[in-house]
User: Fold this.
Amino acid sequence: MADQGKGRSPARTGTGKNVPAKTKTKAKAKAKAKPDFDVDGDSDKNAVQEFLAPVAGFGVTMSTLFRPVVTEQYPFEKKGTYPRYHGRHQLNRYADGLEKCIGCELCAWVCPADAIYVESGNNTPGAQYSPGERYGKVYQINYLRCIFCALCIEACPTRALTMTNDFELAGTSRAEMIFEKETLLAPLRSGMLAAPHPMIEGTDDDDYYRNEVTGPSLDQVDWVRERRPDDETLEAAAAAAQRAAQATVGGAE
Amino acid sequence: MGLEEKLPSGFVLGKVEDLVGWVRSSSMWPVTMGLACCAIEMMAAGTPRFDLARFGMEVFRASPRQADLMIVSGRVSHKMAPVLRTVYDQMADPKWVISMGVCASSGGMFNNYAIVQGVDHILPVDIYLPGCPPRPEMLINAILELHKQVIKGGPLGAHREEINQQVEAAALRATPTHEMKGLLA
Assistant:
């Protein structure tokens, strides 16, 4: 088998039979003129090339010296990920501070690694955490099971669960690697009012879902001021609600 | 062993412990323990782009006697478990373990008869690293977390054996993971 294709074996099989006789003899002649094997690989080289052959490999070294350095200085200079990288999860909020999670458990059902645990609770007039009837009371993700496949993100009907680009997750114990709802919830942006508080007057969960809520209303701010007067988000939310109310009045005029 | 064992703990040894911790953390040699796809990322961490050599640990030792860090990268089958433990036992003290990836840490999505549900059933794990597989930066981050632990330093001196025994006894008293409720199973 080794000499097949060299064109000198008279007993070639398969396609070799169809080759015209003339070509065969030519190939034979060529094979005689030149040895088949180039044992040391330098028979084509002239004297200078042969002399330099032992150090020719350093050419690669020398040319690499002048190439840009590829090393990323990771912990000191963070290059970051692509924007759609699958990192740590985040539970999002609506613009007025209500949570988007409705505790439907679809993420937990779809999870191939059984990494998500959800318990839903009922929203009551006194404690409304999300628009609609129910909210996620307990929400845990076990990062020692999660394979970051993002099927939970696809399953989420309210876009409550999304992924961030944060990947520095190493921990020292199993219990520490189970992230609770407090860790996963998106931080309140300035102008958001911390839940629980009622929905905006005259809206339902569909309005929230269509992003028609752009911030807390004065009613919500008053409700929270009455029940939790030292809430940290209250002042910023009150200012935002005030601005929004003035803008609507100005627009109406 | 020597003078350090005779001296009472806390005297002189405070600074020595710091120094020893720093020295230990600056040249950790990992033993090659690539078991699955996480090993590809572990190898990538050693390539010029990520360059583990910056932290003095570019040599992946195939000989456990010359290694002091075990990066368990990949799923551990029940058949591999005794091998893993033997390699760990052959490593010289002090030694550390990073459980790389969800399969090594808890079994990951392979919750079945073939896979050990977390390498901490057979080894004492220092750092758990999630990800499937974790990117090389995540591994470097985990290694740096371990370095922080090591720099803090373990106990040296006369009480070391006693403390180690206490730690082991506490680990034996702890609730086994298969008896814990909720997500830990």
